[in-house]
Design a protein that fits this description.
The protein is built from 22 helices and 17 strands. 51% of the residues lie in helices and 17% in strands.
Amino acid sequence: MLRIFLLAVLLLAFGLRFHLLAAQSFWNDEGNSARLSERSVALIIEGTASDIHPPLYYLLLHAWQQAVGTSEFGLRAFSAFAGVLLVAGVAAFSRIIQPRDRWRGGMVGVAALLTAVNPALIYYSQETRMYALLGLLAVLSGWALWQWRASVGRARWSWTAAYVLLAAAGLYTHYFFPAVLAAHNLIVLAWLLASARSVGWATAVRRLALPWAGMMLAVLLLYAPWLPIFAGQFGADDLGERGSFVAFLLTAVSWMTFGATIATETARWAVVIVAMLLFIGLWLGRRWVWGTAVCLLIPLLFMYAAGTVQPEYLKFLLVAVPFFLILLATAVTTARQRSIRAILSILLIAALSLGTLSSLRNLYTNPAYARADYRGMAARILADDHPGAGIILNAPNQWEVFTYYYPDDTAVYPLPEGRSRPTPAAVAAALTAITAQHDRLYAIFWGEAQRDPERLIERWLDTHAFKARDEWVGDVRFVVYAVPPEPATEMDTAVAIPFGAAITLVGYTLNKTDLRPGDIVPVTLFWQTAVPLDKRYKVFLHLVGPDGQLVAQRDSEPGGGLNLATIWSPHETVIDNHGLLLPADLPPGRYTLLLGLYDIADPTARLPILTPTGQTDAFPLSELTVR
C-alpha cells in the first residue's frame, strides 16, 4: 500500500514541477546558467572560478543540454527532475531513520507528500539554477550517512564511497554546503559519544572516529583543487545587519512552509501552528529524529552567523527544507493515541492548506510574482524593428539572459563597464560613443542600488535623450529613448505661460513635427518657478486627433523622474526632455500636442494655465503631421 501511495506522490510531484515549466521567461541568473553551460568544460571551469558559485551544476547542465537542447523547458527540466528525485530521497531518508514500528509507513508517506507540494521546493525545481540539486544532494548525503552507520562489511565500503562522492558533489555545487557537512560532523560526534558509553572509547574510535576522519579527508582531497577559490569567495561581502534571531527563525519557518509569495505577517497564525508542530515532532520522535533536527538547525545557525538573512538568501535553506518537512510529518504520525494524531493532522492541514494553495497559485499565475520578462522585452524590441536601435543593460549580468532571447548582440551594451562603481566621466564617454551610433535606445534598468547607486547612466540619458516609455516589467524597468542629433540647450519657441501660481513655461523646443507611426516626438521644455515648491508634479503630453480623441500620451515627472519639482531653485531655468512614442498603427493626419501639469498625489488636480485666449488645463504646444 505504501509503495502505491509513494508512486502517486511522485506523479503529483512530477506534475507540479513540470506544470507551466516554460511559461515564464528566464530571469537574470537563469540566463547566466544557460549561457555559461553553453561553453566548453574548460571555459565553464574558468568562468566559475571568478563567479560566486562552483562549477558542478554548470558542468552537469552542459551535459544535459547536449541531450535535450537549450530551450527554457529543456534547461529547467534538469531542476524539475532533481525536484522529483528529492521527493524520493525524502521518502528513503525517512524510512531509514525511523525504527521498524507501526508508525514508519505513515511518517514516510506524509513526509513525501509534504515535500511534493512544498511551494519553495517547487519554485526552485522550475528554475535553471543549482538549488534543486543542492537540496537533493543534502538529502542523499544524509541518507548515505545513515546507511553507512547501519551497514557492515563490504556494504559499508560502498556507502563510504557513496557518501564521499555525494559530499564532494555538494561542495562543488554551492558554497553553503559546508553547513550540511557541519551538521553531519555533529551527528557523528553524538554517535561516537553514545557508542563510547556502550562499547568503550577504544572500540568507538576504531569503528566510528577513524573511518569518519578518513571519509572527511577523502572529501577534502577531492575538493582541494577548488579550495583556494572557495577561500577567496568566503566572507567577501558585507551583508548588513542580522536583526534578531527569533525574527529570522519566524521568517525562515514561513519561507520553508509557504515559499516567498506569502508574507510572514499575513500567515502568522499558520507559522505559529507549524512551529508548534515542529517542536511536537521533535519531542515525539526524540529518540530517532534528533539527527534530522541537527540537519535543520545547523544551516539556520550558519545563515544567521554569516549574516545571510535577507530574503534573497533564503534559498540557501533548500538544504534544510526536507528535514523541516520530515519533522512535521513526525508530529502528525507518531503520537500513540489516534485522537491526538487526528488533532495534529487537522492543525497541519489547516495551517498548510490555504497558504500552500495561495502560494502555488501565485507561483503559476500571479504576474506580481512572475520572473522578469526578458523574453517579452526582447520580443517588443524585435517587433519595433527600428533600424538604428541600441540596447543598454545597466547591470553586466543582464547580458546573458537578454542575449539568450535577442539574436544580435552587436548593438547590446552592458554598462557600467568593469566591477567598480561608475564615474560621471566614464559614463559620459561610454554613452557619447553609443548615442553617436543610434537614434533610438532601449534601456533595461535593474540593480541600480548595487552597480549605479547615483543613477549616472539614467541621468545622462535623461539629459541628452528623450525618454518616451518607462514601465516596470517585474522588478526590471523597460525604458525607450529617442536620441537627437544634438541635445536641445536653447529654446526654439519662447513663451511665458503660467501654470498655477508659481510655475512658468518660459519656452520649448520641438524640432520634429513631420513624423511617421512608431516615431518618438522629442520635446524639450524650459521651466521656472518663482518660489520653492512643496508638491511634486507630473508633466503630461497628450496627442489628440481632429475629433479631440486621445491617441497617445506620456506622463512623467521632470527630468525623467530624477529632477523633481520640489528640488527646483527659484528663478533658475530647468531643462526638461520628454519623448512621446507614436503608436505603430496611428493613421496619417494632423494632430495636436497638448502639455499640462498635475499634482502627483491627485492626477485630476491639473494646474490651471493662463493663455492669451483664456484659462485651460492643457496648453497646445504644436500641430504635428503624421504621414
